[in-house]
Amino acid sequence: FDGRVAYSRGWLMGEGLEVTTDFASATLDGSFPTTISLVGSNDNPLSWLQALDGKARLDVDLASLDRALPGLIPLRRDVTLVSGRARGIIENTPDAADGAPAKRRSNLSLSSDSLRARADGRIVAIDPIELTATVTDDDGSLRAERFSMSSSFAKASGSGTLQDGMAEVQIDFGRLYTMLRPVIDMSELSLGGTAGGELKWNVKRTGDGNADQWDLGGTGEAKNLLVTLPSGHRFKRSIVQGDIIAKGQWDGRTLRQLSLADVSVRSGGVSMRAELLSPVANPTSDSLYSVRLETDGRLENLSESLRPWLPESLLDAEGRLTGSA
What we know:
Elements: E1 2-8, E2 11-20, E3 24-33, E4 53-61, H1 62-68, E5 79-83, E6 85-94, E7 103-112, E8 115-119, E9 122-126, E10 129-138, E11 141-150, E12 154-160, E13 165-172, H2 173-180, E14 190-204, E15 212-228, E16 234-251, E17 254-267, E18 270-276, E19 280-281, E20 291-298, H3 299-306, E21 320-324
Antiparallel strand pairs: 1-2, 2-3, 3-4, 4-6, 5-8, 6-7, 7-10, 8-9, 10-11, 11-12, 12-13, 13-14, 14-15, 15-16, 16-17, 17-18, 17-19, 18-20, 20-21
């Protein structure tokens, strides 16, 4: 333990503060509230990043952590961690590009080394993972300037605000499962297949005195998808495709009205669709949305996909199903 620490009115403050244990070290130059709300209907999920005023770092030796606290990491029996570290850094500073006191920038970095373990007499490894994000606060309006995640089994990136932005992701579930299975206890679960998707949204200026138009569109596709649940049930589809479209009226810094929203999913001759029936003014997570649900496809294909959740009387049903609600 080294450095200076103080507590005042719900804030913990550290200057050159460093705490070291057998399995981890942490440093703090700054302050943060001891009570942080991470959820709530009015909370932006990015806001917790800016609870810290200053810089904090955490470095964990995962092999030493497992020896000090056995069972905390869900390893398989007879697996021993040999080496591997995880690191995290959060830094909040005024936006140097702007200089305005109301504008702040948060940088988050999470990463891990290649995790090496001894399993069944051989050395196995889990590939490194790196996640970075930059968030700015412009007088209460949070913007994810950028985020990215990279590993041998997945890549994701995105940026933007509610006004405009984009996000894309690619993941190989089979590679992830193959890599984790020798080390992590996944005896009741299996994964396979690949999935990817992209989402883009922006505002089109009308220039005629009316509200600008907000548009969102996205697509996704999964191939050779296989999920085996702890109950033994399997969800297996050769291909699953999905689309989303939304439109609304943009008024300066907020979405004045959600005018249209349509989500559809298709797989193996079965299609499902959800459509917004009437516009929603000033939409939030607490708003009421009138939605029509539609389905169309062969009963045998539908029962194959939903087998774990269907009553026994419908498991062998055949024919065509169409309906809406």
